[in-house]
Amino acid sequence: MKSPPISRRVALKRISKTVAGGALAGVLTPQARSADKASEMTVTVLLNEAIGIIKSTIYSHFTEHIGGVIYDGVWVGPNSKVPNIDGIRRALVEHVRRLGPVVVRWPGGCFADKYHWRDGLGPSDKRPRRFGRWQEVTESNQFGTHEFIHFCRLCGVEPYFGANVGTGSAEEFQQWMEYCNAPAGSTTLADERAANGSSKPFGVRYWGVGNESWGCGGKFTPEDYCREYRKFTEWVPQYRVPLYLIAAGPDGNNLDWTRRFFKKWTDFARAPLQGWAPHYYCGTTGHALKFSDDQWYEMLDKANRMEQLITDQWAALGEFDREHKVKLVIDEWGCWHPAGTEINPRHLFEQMGCLRDALAAALTLDTFNRHADKVDMANIAQLVNNLHSLFLADGDRFVATPTFHVFEMYKPHQGARGVRLAIEAPQVGFIAQGKDRKLFRLAGSASVKGKNLTLTLVHTHAIEPAEISIQLRDGKASEGVQQTVLTHEKLNAHNTFENPNQVMPKTTTLKSRGSSIKCVLPPASITRMDLRLV
Ligand code: AHR
After folding, report:
1. Degrees (nearest 5) of the Cα angle 370, 51, 270?
2. 107-164, pLDDT tens digit by residue?
3. In Å, how far from its chain's centre is CA 23?
4. How far apart are alpha carbons 36 and 464 in whole angstroms?
5. In this structure, what are the phi and psi dihedrals at residue 371, rounded to the nearest 5 degrees?
6. Contact 234, 272 (CB under 8 A)
7. What are phi and psi of 345, to 5 degrees?
8. How many CB atoms lie within 10 A of CB 530?
9. What distance in angstroms lies between residue 383's CA and the mean position of ligand 1's atoms?
10. Which residues line ligand 1 at a C-beta cut-off of 6 Å?
11. Catalytic annotation on 228?
12. Which of 64, 139, 158, 212 is the catalytic position?
């Protein structure tokens, strides 16, 4: 990483002048990389320009039987020395509860298209062991449908099941639904569920039909996948559960997959379909923890392509579904860095998440908020011990990454009414593949719930702070505006088992009020402003 352009002491002196009255004391402690004169930028909150309700499901998660996600991350077993609730890692439950009424997707990913749900039922010592369902490892099936539902109930989240189209059948899918949702005593499968410990139906609403069906899910053509999708979903009993069926969307922003699927879907008759699920991994630049300033910007620029994906995919859906009944479900997204920062070599794809990943997550959540009318659900990949995780766990050690703090900071947006923002700020220049490129310097989203206005802002500049003026169009804030900031002097700062509080949000109260609020955003930061409207 580049060394700071000026000494830390000089930077600190300058920053305390920039931040009038030391309003950010406790945020920009001895950590500013630079305090070159901040340029003034404006964020206008258009309080009367509503986008739509920001569903809590936009803040959802993904857990797959892969590497250390389920075994170690979620499931330690009831006889483990690791504190657990019926085999489920207690620290994870306590943290997931803090994320709000979100959804967790399971059991995959690629694993889902190899998974037979009956393998995960009944006494644990009688469950079959299988091999090679996600790489060359044995699956013990100790964690199955009942364990996952128990995890969801403990955490206060809703389950989202991914069904097997790759090696499964429509019959197997519909029986899984019946097992989960048929009223007590109504069918043989409902009786079997009761014998396995739950006479009460699970009421599973969200069902994904295949995963990445253009790839590990069967390498289908869009037309062939659509044919399968129809077989799986047509005439499925509801069991009084308002089903939400999700079809496997494209790899990234591949419009050909989308158009060809929907052309087939609209040919003759449409099968039930509520959600269209593109996957977008923004990948990496450099390495999880080693990158230049240019690579910092390039990574954030790649994350920012979610914006284009949403608008393009939405437009393509509109060509076939003019009323836009089908919404977007981005059920895998996040950074994907090369191997090398795993905390346990058994944990496939595990990576250390740093401040850069936190900004990538925050700008993506802001993007979803700005498109609250189009995106019904989004699931960052994956919850624990994998890509872009909120948590890392190994044996009895557990730590929350900076990305967890972003999700917690953004929680007030859940269920609030998204409103439009207009931002005036210069772009930041950087070089990628020898070419001059530009990235937004400041972006964000805003929402209103009752009298509470939540404004979240991502400031990408790696060196300079930003002096901003927040203008409230058609409203005023009372005194006591709160500013919560997540940042660090090092762009690659991260939380470890030994040092879990390296990157933590800090809150200060500003004296400002009215329709024009001034504040300073540190370089490389995520900010939440909490304002009370009068
Ligand atoms: O999240 C890891 C893998 O990435 C999933 O199994 C698959 O759906 C995607 O390609």
Report:
1. 90
2. 999 999 999 999 999 999 999 999 988 888 999 999 999 999 999 999 999 999 999 9
3. 31
4. 6
5. -115, 40
6. yes
7. -60, -20
8. 17
9. 13
10. 64, 66, 108-110, 211-212, 332, 381-382, 387
11. no
12. 212
